[in-house]
Amino acid sequence: FDKFTTASRTLGTQMKATGEVMAIGNSFEGALMKAIRSLELPVKSLRMSGLGDLYTEDIEDRLVNIDDQRLFVVAEALRRGFSPERINQITKYDLWFLDRFKNIVDMESRLDHGRLDEDTLRSAKEMGFSDAWIAALAGKEREEIKILRESYGIRPSFKMVDTCAAEFEAQTPYYYSTYDGENEADQPLCLPEVGRVAPGIPVAPWLAASTQAPHRTGEVQQRRKVLVLGSGPIRIGQGIEFDYCSVHSVWALKRLGCETIIINNNPETVSTDFDVADKLYFEPLTAEDVEAVVEQERPWGAVVQFGGQTAIKLTQALTNMGVPILGTPADGVDAAEDRERFDEILQQCGIPRAQGRTVYTTEEALNAAHEVGYPVLVRPSYVLGGQGMEIAYNDRNITEFMRIINQVEQEHPILVDKYLCGREVEVDGVFDGEDLLIPGIMEHIERAGVHSGDSISVYPPMHIEDRHKQTILRYTRDLSRALGVIGLVNIQFIIYNDEIYVIEVNPRSSRTIPYISKVTGVPIIDLATRVMLGGKLRDLGCGTGIYREADYFAVKMPVFSFEKLTDVDTGLGPEMKSTGECLGLAESFPQALLKAFKGAGMRAPKRGGRIIVTVRDEDKGEIVDIARGFANMDIEILATPGTCDALRAAGVPARKVARVSEAHPNILDMISSGSVDLIIDTPTRGRRHDTDGFRIRRSAVEHSVPCVTALDTARAMLTVRTQGRSADLRPLDITKI
């Protein structure tokens, strides 16, 4: 729900969750506290900020609400002196659970009063309290708590999950942390026989280092432990794509003779299957929980590139623990995210980007917007999925967006950039320190301003000239070298007024890696893993530069879940909203586009159908050709008064439909009647929910009428209808891939 600040948070019979976490402990309290940390919300325990400021009467009223925050409201009620029996009468939560919640709340109270004796500290750790949370309650620093508990001999131990129902001794290398003493992770495992290093792949110095004589390529070698951080819970912006990358990297590491260790907490993913890695630790992905595994396993290196933002955020923490980062170091990650450092790198490389500023306060953001000129893109740094990112067109937008961003405490500055409305392209590359391989350039159908995860993506690109491709190749190589990238890099560009600008650089895997790997046949993750262990692209068989383009088209189409989330605006923008995607493959672009639309459940209007068009003033000139194309197919055009006048003035036949606020039958009546095949509605600026456009878009969702909110998407749908006829579709020969 942090992604959709205005959505109804009420939980009921309709599912709203996009993912989940699992935590394992030898007590309910311990498992619950680990699960809360795993959610990656701005909470460390059963205490949520903001609830403590409410009156007790308000807390009692909120106990009735069945929403995602109810668990934290229950805990706050216990702090206010509500008995478990009273809460049980209101919520119907079982008394057994309420007693366990009260145990946690009571322990908080003991720590709040500064009690840090051995018994209290041991009990707190057995209940799953993190050192950071204990420190926050006791008014200490985290390191002080760690030193104190270790002086008491309170250290984490790890238990093996019993997958054999106690019938015989389990050998599954699948662990969770406890604080009860016996450590089952110390027991030797029957791991598969060590393989040989793949011929022709140089071994990184750290991997070859040993107390024995160094091993040469092709010889059996002692296993070296490599820690792979997973991606945590699936949510918008951080999906199964990163688990794909983590699993493929583990397989590649195994082929290179490494012992692999995964830390992750998502029960849905392949990476948490017990037979994927040599060892699996089912733990929260926080610095403290990861440190416990590091102290247990003493890995020779860690891989953070493949777990999305969750893993990459732990780069510096792992470096501080003394764990070598395989691939791009922490400094390179910081340089890509730190605005001032990144601007210096761009200037050194001679690469343009949109003018912008870094700010912390609303006043600074307003001044920055006035300096660079509206419209501007406002976004926090170190985020995934464009969370909190918006295009501001005036001071009111800036004030509104800054308030939303600052609902979560920001550790890093907020960026205010000039918004350039150009053609957006995206590349994923592998860089080995010298050479670069780009499997394919992806072109977005929607212009910049729609998040890349919500855009329709086309491979190979249709409107990118060869000179632009060579510039993109040069910029990607120069930026990778300047940032110290070893392994994967993802860069988004804008082509604006025939010049190429950099939007952002991510020195990690991206959500397009599985897509571009599958449609080009280039094993990107395998190559990146080998490069991270010292391999060179020129030796790996796929060449360097831009990989040869396919002779077919692949269209990636986003899929949304707006019908599950009431009060969420379906209009697309810089903040990602899609929950999935589908792929269309065909020998022509219109055919591939048609397959993708069908896969996403989007129906294009047929001849004799009816569409509604209502666009903002600045789009009225561009909508004319699109509407004319539909009208030429004997599709009836209905339009709101302003749009209708613009269409008629340009010679496009259109029938006027009454606005939402006008007498019945109006536009909402037309949508609910089931007689409309498509709605083209471009949103006005800002997040207001009292506009006609918002009500139209929500009505479309509730009545299952396809609604597009970007003119480029509407034009793509016209292309499908005019050129991608179903009768022309033929199965694509997959052997060509």
Q: What would your notes on this structure say?
A:
- By secondary structure, this protein is α/β, with parallel strands linked by helices.
- Among the domains are: 28-157, Carbamoyl-phosphate synthetase, large subunit oligomerisation domain (Carbamoyl Phosphate Synthetase, Chain A, domain 4, Orthogonal Bundle), CATH 1.10.1030; 603-728, Rossmann fold (3-Layer(aba) Sandwich).
- Helices cover 36% and strands 15% of the residues.
- It has 26 helices and 24 strands.
- Strands 11, 12, 13, 14, 15, 16, 17, 18 and 19 form a nine-stranded mixed β-sheet that branches.
- β21 (636-639), α23 (641-649) and β22 (655-656) form a beta-alpha-beta unit.
- α7 (131-138) crosses α8, α14 crosses α15 and α21 crosses α26 (711-723).
- The longest helix has 18 residues, at 95-112.
- The chain starts with 27 loop residues before the first helix and ends in a 14-residue tail after the last helix.
- Mean pLDDT is 88; it is low at 192-221.
